Input
Amino acid sequence: MNDRSKGISAALASAVFLGLAPIFGKQSIILGFSPLAVVAIRTSIAALLLFLFLLLFKRSFFYIYPLGLAGCMIAGIVNGLGSILYYTALSRLDAGIGQLLYSFYPLFVAFWLFVDRQSISRITLLRLTLSLPAVYLLISSSHQKIDLLGALLMVGAALLYALHLLINQRVLFEVPAPTVTFYTLIGMTATVIIAYLTFNPALPPPATTWWPLMAMAFITFFARITLFMGVKHLGGLQTSLLGLGELLITVVLAQIVLHETLTPIQWVGAFLIALNLILVSYDKPTSVKRFGRGFLNWLNPPSISPTDFPFQS
Output
């Protein structure tokens, strides 16, 4: 299996895990856990699981150069803030509708790439164009009025998630995916625990069942590893476009588990998302510039290039 195939497989696996997360998250909130408690507990357990795994089997993956560590921590803080927005929004929206709004994040990845002065292929632009009417059809035919604040929070979460993908993509040039996953999770954990202890350090009654929240923690553990394996071999934008598959998983399970419903028009939008996934086989990832002038260029590790010796023949 070549690197591209590995990237596609990892990105699709991540989409499956991430598609399950909103279902268990919504169940946890319904059971009485606050959004901050949900994100703090599941992220902390996922980070602990990965720490134990690396300690027992892959201690060499603890090594990371200082600039890479800084990049992972920044990505973790960004995604930690995004997770807080996400689960706060989820407490105000249906899981399916919330995930539909969150599916804008590939557009934000493209936006951040443009800001970072990176190139985007024509097929990628076509796939992004398909995403717009798909999301519109999915949202516009909702059976109930969408909470505006919840919608804005979810879009903000998508914006931050997209940014953290591109920050990590820079670090992944030199660092293995498990290492990036671990230190990013550390940054996330610190961010969400501080928010939880500061704003709402409360838990539901002792009799409350914890199994949906524990399931979320294990899902997060596997989702983060496969996510960054996808980013490493496929790139942030391609991984995020494949990640739209999580939308279909969430929508279908929301109907089965949470008894949410979609109209025929919304299923047309879901079909466009599926078509978007099929087009990945024709979309060749463009190379990310390592030494350009984009705003993420500072994450490149020190290296020697021909320009360092302008007078050498």
